[in-house]
Amino acid sequence: MSIQIPQGCLEYPDTEELIEQCYALVDAIAESDHQRSKEVLFTLLKEKIKILRSCYQVEIGKKEIIMVSSPIN
To answer: Which top-level group of life is the source organism from (predicted)?
Structure first.
């Protein structure tokens, strides 16, 4: 199982830690032999990805605002 997580969140100092936690959860899911454990870990992974997605969308929104508000030469 592979996962790609955007790493462009400039305003959130804990983003790198969240990314590392996601990788650790992916490894734990892959190594687990218990279906219920996999389900719980996968739920945690989805929550962490939602947080990262929110961070990324905020940063993208900020970049769009900057581009729109910049004067055109």
So the answer is: Bacteria
Amino acid at 69: S
Q: How far is CA 26 from the centre of its chain?
A: 13
Question: pLDDT per residue over 21-51, tens digit each?
Answer: 999 999 999 999 999 999 999 999 999 998 8
Angle (CA) 36 18 12, round 5°: 150
Q: Which amino acid is located at 43 in the chain?
A: T
Counted residue by residue, the chain has a size of 73
CB 59 within 8 A of CB 8: yes
Global pTM value = 0.63
Q: How far is C-alpha 53 from the geometric centre of its chain's CA atoms?
A: 5
